[in-house]
Amino acid sequence: MVYHKPVLLEESINGLDINPDGIYIDLTFGGGGHSREILSHLKGGRLIAFDQDADSEAEAGKIDDKRFMFIRSNFRFFRNFLRYHKIDMVDGIMADLGISSHHIDSAGRGFSFRTEGRPDMRMNRESNVTALDVLNKYSIDDLRNMFRTYGEVNNAGKLANVIAGAREKEPITGISGLLEAISDCVPARQESKYLARVFQALRIEVNNELEVLKQMLLQVLLSLNKNGRLVVISYHSLEDRIVKNFMRTGKPEGSMDKDFFGNPLVPFELVTRKVIMAGEEEVKANKRARSARLRIAKRN
Prior knowledge:
The protein is built from 13 helices and 7 strands.
C-alpha cells in the first residue's frame, strides 16, 4: 500500500535548489515522499523532518540514513528543536500543508465525508479536542463563524442552527449521522464541494491550522540562511493567502515594513511570481494534486 503520493515533487525539489552539503528541513514529513527525494540529492548534507502524527513517525522509522533525523512535533516548534540540536541556520525549508492520502483514506481518522467513522480529525491524536467535540459543544455563533471563516460556507448560519437542533435530539457520533443531519443544507448538484468545505472548516478548527501556519512562517525568517529557499505547497485559499503575504512582505498579514526613507523592507525574493500548479498528467494520476498551489521564495 502506498502511504502517500507526493504532490508537485519535481517542482518543489527544483525550487529548493539543493546544495548537496546543505542542511534542509521537511516540516511535513507525512509519508516521506518529499524527504526521500531531498535525501537523494544530498551528499554531506543533513535533513531534519517534522511531523506530529504517530503514523508518520512509524513511516520515518523505515529510513535508515545517518543524514536524516525525524522529530515528532508540530512544526510550530521547529526552531526550538533546531536550537536544541545546535542548528542555528538552514539552507532550505519545505512544507506540504495538505493532509496525506493515508489520513483521508483511514476511516478511523474521520477526515473524509466519503468514509464512515467517527469525526476525529486530529493530526496529533494525543491532543484533546476532536471534531465531535466541536460539533456537539460549540455554540451556534462559534459554529457559524467557523464554517463561514474556515470553510467559506455560504449558508453557515443555517448550517450552524441545523447542527445545534440535531444534537439537542441526540449527540452527533458518526459521519453518517452528521451528513444526515445537515442534508437539507447541501446545495443540489454541489454536494461534494459543499461537504469538502464543511470538513475543511472542522479540520482547521480542530488543529488550529492557520494560527500554527503563521507561527511557523515567522520562525522561517530566523532560520533561513541568505539565499536559502522556502518552498510551500498549500491547498486552499486561506492557506495560500497567508503564504503569499509572507513571501511578499515577511508578515502573514501582508503589512509591509519600511525603512527610515520609506523603502520597503522585503526579506524574500520571489523565485516564481506566479503560483505553480500541477499539470494535467499529474492531476489525472493523483486527483488530490488538483488543488495544490506551490510558491517558492529566496531569503535576501
